[in-house]
C-alpha cells in the first residue's frame, strides 16, 4: 500500500499515556475493588461462570508491585467490524510487553477468531508494528466474525493456546466478541489451561459502554468523520437551497452515532430509534414529523434541509418490527418463499400468509423496499437491516404525504430529496488523536492486566474528558457487564448493549434544541479531523462524552 505524506507524519505521532502507565513496569501496581455482580441474571451467570464470576474491578495505580519480570508470549485477535484505532491497541500491547521484558513475543492471529482456531499466526515484530502505528484499519492481521461457540471450537482454541504456549490472548472486539472472551476465559480455567484472556472494547456504534467503559474505541473517529461529511452536505444544501438530504448512518441496535452527529452538525431532523420505540411511533407519526419540518421551512422560503436516520430505525417502528418478525419466521420455515425469485408471486403468497395488518403494510411499501426485506438473511436467519434503504422509504412516503397536502392547499413549497448512506466511510479512517491515545492506552493496560495474572477482564480507561495524563486505567470483570438474553430459543449470556438513554444528558441536550432546528437553518460545519495544533482543537472527545461527564 502506498504511503501518503499524512501517514508518514502519523507514524511519528507519540500517543499520550495516563501517568499511572507511563512509568517502569515494577512501579505499576493494582488496587482491587469489591467483588462484582452482573448487569442482571446473577444466578444463571454464577452457575455458567463458576470460576470467573464475582471478581472485583481493578484500578492501575503507581506503586511497587513485586511482579516477576519474565518474557511473555501473547496472542492478539481483531474480531468483528473495523474501527479506527485497532492498530494502536496492538502497538500499545506490543510496547507494554517489550517494556516488561525485551524477549516477549506478540503473535497476531490472522483473519479474526478463525485464525486462532486454525493456528494461523504472524509474529508481530517492531518493524511490522511501526508501519501501522496511528493508522486506520485492521489490515495488520485482518479481522473476522467467527464465534467460538461449539465444543469443537473451544477445544481447538485450547489446542492453539497450549501449542503456542500462550501466557495470554487479547480479544479486541465488541459486545459479542467480549462475551466470547469471557466464555473462553472460563473454559480455559475449567480445563486447567493457564492462558489468560483479556478483552478490549471496540465498536464504532458506541453501544459497548457502562460505568467503567466510558466509550468504545473508534466511536470518536467515526462520528467526526461522518460529521465532516454531514457538515459538507449542510453547506451545500444551504448554498443550492433546493434539496432535502436524507442521510442514513451506521448503528443497528443503538442510535449513538446519529445522536452525536446531530449534536455536532445540528440538522433539521434527527430520528432516534430508542425514542421511536419508547413512544411507539408509527411510520405515519415519523412521516408527520418530517413533513412538519418541510412545510414550516417551506413557508419561510427554505425548500431544503437535512435529516439524519439511524441504520436500525426500521426495526424500532412497531408495525415494521412485527412485519420483519413475521417475514423472518416465514422464510425460515417455508422454502417456497425463501427460494422464490418472482416478486409478484412472493407478494401473492405473503398476502395469504402474513397477518392482515402486516400484509397491508407490506403491500404499501415501495417495490425496492419490499425486495430488500425479502433478500438473503444473515447467518442467524434475520433480515439484514443494513441493506434496507430506509432513507429512500421515508423520502417516498414524505413525497406522497406532501402531494396530498399540496392538493388540499396546506403546502405550496417544493420538495426534492437526495438519499445517502454513510457507513464504511467511518470504519477505517486515520484515528483522531483521542482514539490514537485511547487505543494505545487500552493496549498498554491489557499488558498490565496480563502481567498481573488476571483473566476474564476487559481493559478499561476512564476519566476521558480530562487530559490523557489524568486518565484512569484499570480492568473490569467481563461477567460484571453481562445479562441473560433469549437468543434463537435459548437463554444465553451476553454483554448488555448500551442504548441511547432518553433521560441521559446527551439526548436531553438534543431534545432541547430540535424544535428550533426543525424550522430554522442552524447548521454547524465541524470540518475534518485535526491532527496537528492546540489540544482544544485536536484532542477533544465527543460531545456525548462531555455531556455525560457533566451530568
Task: Please tell me the overall pLDDT.
Answer: 94
CATH top level of the largest domain is Alpha Beta
How many helices? 23
CATH topology of the largest domain: Rossmann fold
Instruction: Give Rg in angstroms.
Output: 25 Å
Walk me through the structure.
Helix 3 (86-100) links the parallel strand 3 (73-78) and strand 4. It is built from 23 helices and 15 strands. The longest helix has 22 residues, at 219-240. The protein is of the alpha/beta class and 551 residues long. It folds into 3 domains: 19-218 and 431-484, 3-Layer(aba) Sandwich (Rossmann fold); 223-311 and 389-426 and 512-543, Rossmann fold (3-Layer(aba) Sandwich), CATH 3.40.50; 314-388, Arc Repressor Mutant, subunit A (Orthogonal Bundle). It is globular and about 80 Å long. The chain has a 9-stranded mixed β-sheet with strand order 1-2-13-12-7-6-3-4-5, with helices on both faces. It has a 4-stranded parallel β-sheet with strand order 9-10-8-11, sandwiched between helices. A two-stranded antiparallel sheet has the order 14-15.
Features:
Rossmann fold, alpha/beta, globular, Arc Repressor Mutant, subunit A, 15 strands, four-stranded parallel sheet, 551 residues, 23 helices, 15% strand
